[in-house]
Amino acid sequence: MTLELVKEAVAAGARREAACEIIGLSARTVERWRSGNVEDQRHGPKTPPANKLTNGERQSVLEVVNEPRFRDLSPNQIVPLLADEKRYLASESTMYRILREEELLHHRGRAKAPVRRAPQAYVAMGPNEVWSWDITYLKSPIRGVFFYLYMIVDVWSRKTIGWEVHDVESAEFAAALFEQTCTRMHLDPRGIVLHADNGGPMKGSTMVATLERLGVLPSFSRPHVSDDNPYSEALFRTLKYRPEYPTKPFADVATARAWVEGFVAWYNGEHLHSGVRFVTPGDRHAGKDAAILAQRRQVYEDARAKNPARWTQSTRNWTPIEEVYLNPEERTRRATSTAVPQHSEGVAA
Fold first, then answer.
1. What is the SS3 assignment for 166?
2. In degrees rounded to 5, what are phi and psi of residue 133?
3. I need a labelling partner for 196 at 20 to 30 A (CA). Which of 54, 142, 148, 152 fits?
4. Residue ranges per domain, the chain?
């Protein structure tokens, strides 16, 4: 039947390759069928690869990924933790394959798989050069009434450097939080890029006047484009999809502050952030990530030296990320702007 359809199409003037493509076959397959050979001549490998994991090694991987501390984590989180312990069991892709074969690869948590976004345009080469901030709602006991979580995140390190919870949304509270954060960090804010969306508190007269007085370079998202402020949005998403995030409203502002304080301690001190090579934002901000990643790289080099047949390419990339961008569509234009010298010169140690 298929051969007849192809024959009719060719007789009507169609090219054989195009007709075969439409029905999902290659032209070579059709030619083979026309010659009378309808059997699939392809054969898989007759012997397993020489570098295949042994049954014992495979079982060790399964035991480790199902340990209580790892069973809620994916391999891309487990691998860095094992490297920190100077252990190498298998590559990340091998772990995924084993879990898939054992039907253990299921997405955990409330969130859907993250959407990867392109890199940005204001460039940060270190901490305290580019910050992002935003406000999110927290449920209160009264329907339709919310508490407001203000958060500032360092774009380069992903560390939450300032936060507060209030029962109102205002530019005055936002400006106060920014100044308090700089004072607590003993930081001269002159030249820092502060990015926000187009909300009222972000563009309120008090906030704008404060930034102008402090010499801060304001940056705003395009109207109706939420992806222009991805770092704050990603932080809020992580916060609200934590297993510990309350399913019921917060009783009062004090209760909300206590919960956020615990979240920030976990996020900065324990959370291995995928955007900075799976080190914690706190370690990254403090400049400890280079040593951590160097140790992980050595673990992988030792593993490759021990079993070189299992490595067809280079080892996992443990190189620290040096540049982080904001606003990708303007990346080329801003590369020649004065934004980098401005906020590089104004940062106090």
1. strand
2. -145, 160
3. 142
4. 2-34, 55-101, 119-349
